[in-house]
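Form 7-S
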Amino acid sequence: MQALTLAFALVILTIASAANADWIAAPDSDVQSGLTPTLAAELLAVPGPVLLQREDTPIPSWTVISDGKTVGYVGSTWELSGSTGYSGRPVDVLVAVTPEAGIAGAKLVRHNEPILTLGITDEDIAAFVGAFAGVDLGTRDPAAFRASPDLPDVISRATVSTGVIRDAILRTGRTLALGHGLIPGNGGIDRVSYAPRDWAGLVADGALVNTRVSMAEAHDALAAGRNPPEPGEGAFLDLWVGLIDPPTVGRNLLGQQVFSRAVGNLGLSDAALFVGSAGLHSHRGTAWRRSGVFDRIAIRQGDLLLTLTDGDYLRLDDLEIAGAPDLKERSIFRLAGEGFDPTAPFTVDVTATRPSDGEPVTMVTSQDFALPQQFRQAIVAPDLPPLWQSSWETKRVEVASVGVMLGALTLILLFQESLTRRRRLYRAVRLGFLTVTLVWLGWILNGQLSVVQVVAFLHALLLGFRWETFLIEPIIFTLWGFVALGLLFWGRGVFCGWLCPFGALQELTNVGAKLLRIPQVAVPQALHERLWIIKYTLFIAIVALSFYSMEWALKLAEVEPFKTAVSMRMMRAWPFVVFVVALLVAGLFIERFYCRYLCPLGAGLAIPAKLKIFDWLHRRPQCGRECHLCEQKCTVGAIDPLGRINPNECILCLKCQWIFHDESECTVLKKRARARAQATGATS
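Output:
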């Protein structure tokens, strides 16, 4: 066993070296986008020399001048659209736009996307980014724009990351074209023009409006309730509201980065509302943390009433603008709803309530708001819809097929007792489902989950989580959603035992090995339990190392054979293929060898396994005492010598349940059958 472990260590080190050769250098995320005249000329395909003129209005970008004429504009995706990758860190692409509103060229200048680098070369990325040259940004039909044959397809095996890059390039190109007047504007709100303003300037423009309720006024209004505020001249509620969609408002108020985050994912008819307050009364309250609904604040427009939820909310810890008053709370709310028009007047209501012996006593503070004319734009042109929406539309058939698989698995787990009582049916369902998981979910749909996705999710939580990033890959998102619920209901086995393509490949090959009478190695229990340490150590090491160096964390994550065996179907450098073959050969003798001892993803899923709600795996008092059959036949050795099932290791294959109900297999049932037969013979 020591020799086997040493051999695997040598293979892993060899793979790490091969991975290093494939690595795309990721510049430091703190480095600013560097545009040189030579690079600008290359992007715009014009002969040098060219002159770069930096502009911060109407949008941050560079104007490229050649022979005294403007030949194009260049912008940064990180600066203009706040492009954040799958890792939760910046992705920056320089995008060049011609005066004819076409993309002349694009160049990836920095990223921290480890997922891009596995099996994908520099040439692949350069070709993908460069393929945006020639895309026409002038179309007003978003659906036609998304379906344009000029757009390059995202790269398989890096769907999310390249999808983010694609979306950032298109949004930045549209922003450049809009900002420099190359295409008509968007909607009734001027989302392009910018002028510097301080707080007093925005108030003078009418972009921010205010109402104040004194403690005395609140006392009079709430006097009939219990604990009314003490009368006085202090502020009970000092309320400020305004739409931040116009850059003159939003950029001055929040700064470029926060502004891009706040408005970057708004729909065509959505708007972003700033609400700030000071005084005794909070416009947010605390009940929303439990209910998800803000019960104190609402938006009225005619007969339409908008209720705000936590999904519409962005908390602000500070403001960038000079001269802002001392506010206790600052919030951004997304205003969205059928029939809502952000250019039409609306009212913001903030309610204060006090209990009484009868009905609660309420006071509503209302502030009317109308978008000032200077922040309106008459020309209407629909904007680009979010990439994730088109991804789900494109893959609706594949998502539906995965939904059918997940529905079938849910029925299997809910009615497992009825299934495992029928030996042939159980084996047919089990082997059939694993085959579909391997072929359809794995090799065709590329639906293999990975520890790299866990690391990316953790980094996104810490560095600015955005659902849109993870929604770009519908299959992976759907699987992770089901696995998350499965962990709560049944434990890690929902994924490891049924939805892992590589796990299915191991089990199916082991079934063939048993049919060929290849001897199975029984690992001694003491050694078996100690070898578990490897996968848990690998998981912790990968996560910890990712916070120091994503590059090294990714190299260590090559202990996962999923990409080689499933995503790339063994079409990879020989060290990777040798590693997969070694794992599969080991699995011929020790069923699911990789799952048992090396899988960091399985270890990560096992950590919350004991939190599961249901435990429907039956055991008898004789298990582990009189009988050790289930222990010997367990797919991953999750049953200890005392007959107990370890939830951290169980993959929910249900083999022990089939044995539990099978009178021809279960030792206890066979003894009972013999006892009944003897009793019947004695009486006869």
